[in-house]
Automatic annotation (TrEMBL):
<feature type="domain" description="Mur ligase C-terminal">
    <location>
        <begin position="307"/>
        <end position="420"/>
    </location>
</feature>
<dbReference type="GO" id="GO:0008764">
    <property type="term" value="F:UDP-N-acetylmuramoylalanine-D-glutamate ligase activity"/>
</dbReference>
<dbReference type="GO" id="GO:0008360">
    <property type="term" value="P:regulation of cell shape"/>
</dbReference>
<dbReference type="InterPro" id="IPR036615">
    <property type="entry name" value="Mur_ligase_C_dom_sf"/>
</dbReference>
<feature type="binding site">
    <location>
        <begin position="108"/>
        <end position="114"/>
    </location>
    <ligand>
        <name>ATP</name>
    </ligand>
</feature>
<keyword id="KW-0961">Cell wall biogenesis/degradation</keyword>
<dbReference type="Pfam" id="PF02875">
    <property type="entry name" value="Mur_ligase_C"/>
</dbReference>
<keyword id="KW-0436">Ligase</keyword>
<comment type="similarity">
    <text>Belongs to the MurCDEF family.</text>
</comment>
<keyword id="KW-0547">Nucleotide-binding</keyword>
<feature type="domain" description="Mur ligase central">
    <location>
        <begin position="106"/>
        <end position="285"/>
    </location>
</feature>
<keyword id="KW-0963">Cytoplasm</keyword>
<keyword id="KW-0133">Cell shape</keyword>
<dbReference type="InterPro" id="IPR004101">
    <property type="entry name" value="Mur_ligase_C"/>
</dbReference>
<keyword id="KW-0067">ATP-binding</keyword>
<comment type="pathway">
    <text>Cell wall biogenesis; peptidoglycan biosynthesis.</text>
</comment>
<dbReference type="GO" id="GO:0005524">
    <property type="term" value="F:ATP binding"/>
</dbReference>
Amino acid sequence: MRLVVLGGGESGVGTAILGKKKGYDVFVSDFGKIKNNYKEVLALNKLAWEEEQHTEELILNADVVMKSPGIPDKSPIIVKLKEKGIPVISEIEFASPFTDVETIGITGSNGKTTTTMLTHHILKQGGLNMGLAGNIGKSFAWQVAENKSEGYVLELSSFQLDGITKYRPHIAVITNISPDHLDRYNYNYDLYIAAKFRITMNQTEDDYLIYDDDDEVIKNWLENNKVKAKKIPFSLSGKNKKGIYVKDNTIVSNIKKGEFTMPINELSLEGKHNVKNAMAAISVAQLKNIRKKTIFESLTNFQGVEHRLEKVLKIQNVEYINDSKATNTNSTYYALDSMTAPTVWIVGGVDKGNDYNEIMQLVREKVKAIVCLGVDNSKIISAFSNVVDVMVETTSMTEAVKIAQKMAEKGDTVLLSPACASFDLFESYEDRGKQFKAAVQNL
């Protein structure tokens, strides 16, 4: 069996290692450059690879192809593979048959990283040896090859879910759905929604689907489509007493016998969206029979996620916050919503089809000045020029931070929450966040 892996990053290299271990003839091909650390791993494992090209005669003879999530279906090599009827799957689909342990799959437009990490944190505190993978950390396939975990908590993007046919999580979580990555779905929101719901398509009556019952898109889809899994809703209102909800500023869960309650002000994470992330994580923990005391303690000591509303420094009584992980308007909505001081907002990058009307009201209320940080800022300028008095265009993080510092007065907040992808000026949202933190530390 010939396995061709397209993309020599984390998921690609992990898949190649697992494939070789399971007896496949493996070839890795990357249209860009492969990072040196991955080249070393490929060499160490005696795996064949190429970079900066896709040699068709070495790819079109595959029995199965694993493509990295970053490669669009429109790319010429994928089109040719599909014309030949060669299966093109995601890392999650390739790796899952090689493990017997159960997985918890978490998806959503926003909040999935925080929810995944929080869930993993609680289960680990509860004594379970769980792997953490998907969009985070060491790839799922790589961990399956090492076979050291009794289960996995997976953060799953719509791109990873596009590439599954049989993958079935025992517990699936959908944190929320809002327009994102529409450039990859022919600007058709319904296609993107359908991609997210693939997470539950193979689930049975023995499995669970945890979802946001306040989310109109999710509710609408569930009303019009059948789901076999047991449904567990979470909600900020107490209307649906079935799953987990908020009453008198307290989270109340009836998932297991004997109520679990937790006052919202005890959570280590701030903001309404994090109450929802916490409810999703509590639901999983209860299904996994983690003790209430452990759940409570884990929620009070969780440190949060880097680049997600991360407090960097306070300088001359101005708070600097790194929310580089906000790559769409919905994510930035949560960030602006949790601001309590006048805000200098650093925004911009590669627009993935944003509708800035969604955050217009919050920008009016919270934002005193905008610093644009992107190659093309025209859409941001036309959206907000009548709303905010001061707007400045910049092309580097150092410049953006220095200008933001000049605009900010005592008691203000400087917020990096770009609402866009990072690839015009940065390698990734992590790179963008790290550059922001370094620039703030140099002030």
